[in-house]
Amino acid sequence: MSRRKSFESSGCVQIEGEEDGYDALTGLPDRTSLERRIEQRLAQKGRPFSLIAVDIDNFRSYNDAYGYAVGDAIIARFGRYLQASLSSGAEMVGRVGSEEYLAVVDGADRDVLDSLTSDLLTVRLTIDGEGPSVESTSVSLTAGAGVVSWDGEAALTPAALIHQAEVALRKAKQLGRSRRYAFETDDAEFARLREDMRLSMELSVEIGDALERGEFEAFFQPLFRPSNGRIVGAEALARWRHPSRGLVSPAVFIPPLERSGAIVDLDLAIFEQCCRFLRDRLDKGAVIVPLNCNFSRLHFLDDSFADALKGIVDRYAVPPSYLCAEITESAFVEDFDTVIGQVKRLHEHGFSVAMDDFGSGYSSLGMLQNLPIDEVKIDQLFFQRDLSDFRNATVVYSMANIAKVLGLVVVCEGIETAEQVEFVKGIGCDIAQGFFFSRPVDEASFGKLLERARAHEPLTRSPLRKEDARSFIVRLFDHAFVRQDLDAFADCCFDDVQWQDRFEEGCFSGIDAVRAHLERAMSGRELSIAYKAITVNELSGDLVAVSGEAVFTGDVDYQGVFYFGASCLATDAGVLLTKMKIDRVNRSGHSHRSLQMAAMDMERLDEGPALDQFYGVVPVGIIRYDLSGDMLITYMNQAMFDILGYTKEQFYGEVGANLRMIVHPDDLDYLYKKSVEMIETGESEPFSYRFIRRDGSVARVLYRQCNLPGIDGRPVTQGMYIDLDEAERYLTEDEGE
């Protein structure tokens, strides 16, 4: 089938009498054909229509990653996708640039246009059958869309209307990935955007000299805690104070800086201004708060980036913990391994890292658990939607909730109304940013804001990140058991540390006693440790309980599986151990069969924040535990703590998170076998067994089991518990009455 016939069969209208004017690569109409069609429509007064300009985001990266043959195949395949997606409303879809397309759409209804473009912004394409040099592959891509509508009356040329659509497209691209931007032909916003573009071209030749003269300065947009309206940080934003034009908008100077690569110099200049600002306030004894600084993805491709920031921080002698590097979500998606390596180096130097514009690109919520970041900034586009709509609200809630479960600080961007403030409070957002609270202000004005808010809370950037807590335990055991470096071990502990060791059947109090115990017990042993699970349970802002299961190997007398429960505290000197309990495992002879751990180093998510909203107020006990992790508890509700006679702090501090340690020893094997049987048969029937309470008494419970996926996708067992002794007391009282 010819390109013309293929196009006509798609349902789109073809220009009468035209035989040529098709793009060779895609088979779509070219710019000339589109201009002719637009000219025909402009002659039909009283019939509004719209143009949709679409451009693939960062297309060069696909050429770099897959080669030009696949790049061409993507262009052709995306063109066909557009043609099919827009067939219900488009009169013509054509290609007007390398990876730019244009559609002529009948009508100017904004809802219809939004619906048409919604499926164009995030796309997954299968490239297959595109030629002998192109292997079958699947790619994910995002695109920007610019929309302009003609009212049926204004006097315009096709070139002018296309130009307006392309201006809208550029605006969408400036906003980030997967964005659309629309305006009417008589919209004053278009005139402003066009003026920005013209001014950007004029000023682009001055930017290099302006950087050298120090004309760029940091403005600060405060970050607020929505629960009390207190300032807890700020984002540093670049502004150009031009000697004759005054303050120049970032929309004018950022694009040419990005095109030239000079954006890296601007980023470092703003970062240095932040360090200078912090140093000045420290010298004056004034209030300081953490500052977020934006960095282009180009920095993360430079191996010296983290060291460069450390050098600036050292020069001004400011704590790196008060500086956070922001990088956009798209940078993580495009250069994942490279960026992750840089993030780890930034952490080594004491900086925190935030993912900016989260949700705007083609990443997933599951991606978060693989990112060593400290905070996520949910993109403002989510708060511009109708948050009274269940689906819109659920999307934002899910993003915030999963981020919090992973121990990340959640920042909500673009908050402009009181209704949005109430919404972010309701979803438990840690920090809010937007015009409702404050526009970006200069350094002097920001200093005054801090002085007026001296009662601020310091920003808690997840003081003890879950990843930090896990790595601390690994480091602690490495010092104590593997390398037996007791000086390094002592540096990880409080002087009054408590150590209970059931391998050696001893309890030791104070670092000197613990050192002596380890020196006596470990001397001459060659051990290694394999970790089967490490679970982190946050008790307060700086106190966490860490528990898990691991295996000693390498020494015949000492090897075996053990459980541990530790209490750790984040201090200015780093994470320190306050209490450790180690318990040897006796397996009662049964095997794990199909439930045996398939891999070591399994990490668990703390499910508490996500599940408390459902189970926090029910009158029965709930425990979730993981049989594949040998009964490691992933969640327990308040009613269950009450049944066992523990507070949450007591339970995780004294017991850890292992179900075996609270089940009556005579019932343990029975419980395990019954649980496995119900998993294998898919049947569930209630049965009773016993727990040991904190005070040593026995609690009889009625147990009903169900099996379901945990919040991280792994299978977990959930048990519902009724305290039989308590139930019998109620029944006895009722009978007495």
Structure description:
This protein is of the alpha/beta class and 737 residues long. It has 4 domains: 3-199, Alpha-Beta Plaits (2-Layer Sandwich), CATH 3.30.70; 204-451, TIM Barrel (Alpha-Beta Barrel), CATH 3.20.20.450; 466-585, Roll (Nuclear Transport Factor 2, Chain: A); 608-732, PAS domain (Beta-Lactamase, 2-Layer Sandwich). The protein is 38% helix and 27% strand. The chain contains 24 helices and 27 strands. Strands 7, 8, 9, 10, 11, 12, 13, 14 and 15 form a 9-stranded mixed sheet that branches. Strands 17-16-21-20-19-18-22 form a 7-stranded mixed sheet, sandwiched between helices. α6 (158-175) packs across α7, α7 (188-203) packs across α9 (250-260) and α11 packs parallel to α13 (336-348). It is globular and about 90 Å long. The protein starts with a helix and ends with a helix.
How would you describe this structure in keywords?
24 helices, alpha/beta, 737 residues, Nuclear Transport Factor 2, Chain: A, 38% helix, single chain, 9-stranded mixed β-sheet, TIM Barrel
Topology record:
Layout: H1 3-9, H2 31-42, E1 49-56, H3 60-66, H4 68-85, E2 90-95, E3 100-106, H5 110-118, E4 122-127, E5 137-150, H6 158-175, E6 180-184, H7 188-203, H8 207-213, E7 216-225, E8 230-242, E9 246-248, H9 250-260, H10 263-284, E10 291-294, H11 305-316, E11 323-328, H12 329-334, H13 336-348, E12 352-358, E13 375-378, H14 390-405, E14 409-412, H15 418-426, E15 431-432, H16 443-452, H17 466-482, H18 486-491, E16 493-501, E17 506-509, H19 511-522, E18 528-538, E19 543-553, E20 560-571, E21 574-584, E22 602-603, H20 608-615, E23 621-626, E24 632-636, H21 638-644, H22 648-654, H23 665-681, E25 687-692, E26 698-709, E27 715-723, H24 724-736
